[in-house]
Amino acid sequence: MKRLLLLLMIFVLACPLAHAETTAQYKALTNVDFGLRKKPEESSYRYLKVPEKSKVKILEWGEEWCLIEYQEQAGYAKTKWLYHVQSLDALRYPLPNM
User: Fold this and answer.
1) Which of 1, 19, 41, 60 has the most CB atoms at less than 10 Å from its CB?
2) pTM of the model
3) What is the mean pLDDT of each run of 10 residues along the chain (98 residues)?
4) What are the residue ranges of helices labelled H in 1-98?
């Protein structure tokens, strides 16, 4: 019983941390049609089409790839496919060098 309570406490405490990692940092528009990818690789499986000029949320910024959210689905997009990037909290997430 004690182990079950301990595991439940760990799960409850870990949930906000997992959610904090997926909080949107930026919003942007897309400048091309592309497939949302499972991994940040050219050869990765594409599972959702993102049309040009779509509004997306950027969860993690990278020089070559960004983790984005589109229609409540998270996946990877090339950074160069995004434009008009705006920070959702300028103090915590300053605009990256583009």
Assistant:
1) 60
2) 0.75
3) 59 45 89 97 96 97 96 97 94 80
4) 2-21
